[in-house]
Design brief:
Bound molecules: flavin mononucleotide
Strand content: 15-25%
Number of helices: 7
CATH architecture of the largest domain: 3-Layer(aba) Sandwich
Distance between the termini: 6 Å
Structural class: alpha/beta
Oligomer: single chain
Length: about 170
């Protein structure tokens, strides 16, 4: 059974997770922009990792359009893992019954371009103005504009076990 890890990463967290997973499974990790539909068709299982932007898993639409035989998704985000975080991502990305995993990462504010940094500052202001804040609003208000790293190779364990149990490595 042939497996590949494909990822899209802007500041490096998703790339790091993709490499940890690929090392564990003994397969390769490749950037989304470097894979073709023909290449994807040659794999029995494609593990796709994308970072979260406003609860959307970046790049997942693109990999889905390539029709992988079996798709296992992982998402990296700054939010702490928990039921609320997972539910929001699941709903926004229509994950339904599909296998997917969340891996907490962090924020590398310093690595973002000026436009994104300005956008995030504007988001922070608008969250600060909200009268009724959700748990996520409060968290975002606290962390937007800062840099931190909560990534951990142990967060790959569930995905790696799932893929092994399916016999894809
Ligand atoms: C514009 C923007 C929006 C973001 N939105 C969210 C979000 O809705 N939820 C979340 O948990 N993290 C959010 N993040 C944090 C990123 O998902 C997190 O830093 C991610 O791991 C970055 O992955 P990368 O280093 O591979 O690019 C956002 C980051 C940016 C820059």
């Amino acid at each position: 059974m042939k497996t590949i890890v494909v990822y899209q990463s802007s500041t490096g967290f998703t790339k790091q997770y993709a490499e940890w997973i690929a090392t564990e499974l003994g397969c390769k990790a490749k950037e989304l922009k470097k894979v073709s539909e023909t290449e994807i068709a040659s794999y029995d299982c494609v593990i796709y990792g994308g970072w979260i932007m406003g609860n959307t898993i970046v790049g997942r639409d693109k990999i889905k359009k390539m029709n992988p035989k079996q798709l296992v998704t992982f998402a990296t985000g700054a939010s702490p893992d928990g039921e609320n975080t997972r539910k929001a991502i699941e709903t926004q990305n229509n994950l339904g019954e599909e296998p997917w995993f969340y891996m907490e990462s962090g924020f590398r504010f310093d690595k973002l371009n000026l436009f994104v940094r300005m956008m995030l500052k504007a988001m922070k202001k608008s969250v600060a103005k909200k009268k009724e804040k959700t748990e996520q609003d409060r968290y975002m208000e606290k962390v937007l504009g800062t840099s931190f790293d909560h990534s951990n190779p142990n967060y790959c364990t569930s995905l790696v076990s799932y893929v092994r149990a399916m016999g894809y490595n």
